[in-house]
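chain below, 240 aa
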Amino acid sequence: MDGPVRLNRYLAQAGVASRRAADRLIAEGRVTVDGQVAEPGTQVGAGADVRVDGAPVAPEQVVHLLMNKPPGYVTTARDPQGRPTVLDLVDRPERVVPVGRLDRDTSGLLILTNDGGLAQLLAHPSHGVPKTYRALVRGLPGPAAVRRLERGVELDDGRTAPAAARVLRTRSGGAELELVLKEGRNRQVRRMCAAVGHPVLELERIAYGPLRLGRLAVGGVRELSAREVAALRAAASGGR
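prediction:
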C-alpha cells in the first residue's frame, strides 16, 4: 500500500466485500481500526490493525494478469446460467476481475486485475486504448468493404469510430482480417463485419494497447511484468 486509502477500498482490496458492501459493514459498526469502531470515510495507513467482526483483515497483493481466453467462457465473475467463466481458469488467491469483456465465442487477450485504478483508466471510453483483433470472415472483403470498416459503420447504436483494417490473407471460403479499434461496444467487431457483408466465423483479440498475446497457450494465464503494467498505464493515460 503506497499511502493511506479509504477504509471501504481497503476492505475491497482485502477481498472482504465490494466497496458498497464494505460501506454497509462500516455503517453497521462491524469494522474497527486500531481498536476503534470505524466511521465512514476513515483512512487506513500501512500497519493499521483492521478487523471485521473481530477477525483481522489485510489487503491483497495487487496483481495484473494476462489470459489467453478460450472460446466458450463468459467474461464475468459468475454466470446465472451456469456456464464456465474466465475466473474458473485463474488459480490465484487474490480476487481479480476482467477488464472489459470478450463475448463467449471470442478468444484471445484478456486482462484481469484487482487494481481498481488501472481498470477504471482502461475502461474509460475517452482514453481510447487500441485493441487489435484477428477475424476470420466469410467471403473476401474488397477495398470498398475495408474502407467502410476504416471510416466507420452505421450500427443500431450509432456510427462506429474510425478504425484500422486490412486483409491479412485469404482462406478457403473466407479471409482473415485485422482490425484495430479504440472503442469497446458490445460485439462490435462482429456487428461491423456483418454490416459490410462479411460475417465473422472466428474472432481473436491479439493485442491490447502495448500488450501482445504472443505464444501464451489457449487458457493460459501469466502475470504482467512491471514494465508491461507501466506501459499499459501510460497508454491508458495518453502517454502522461
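Helices lie at 7-13, 19-27, 116-123, 143-151, 188-195, 226-236. Residues 64-125+211-236 form a domain with the Alpha-Beta Plaits fold (CATH 3.30.70.580).
thats it, cya
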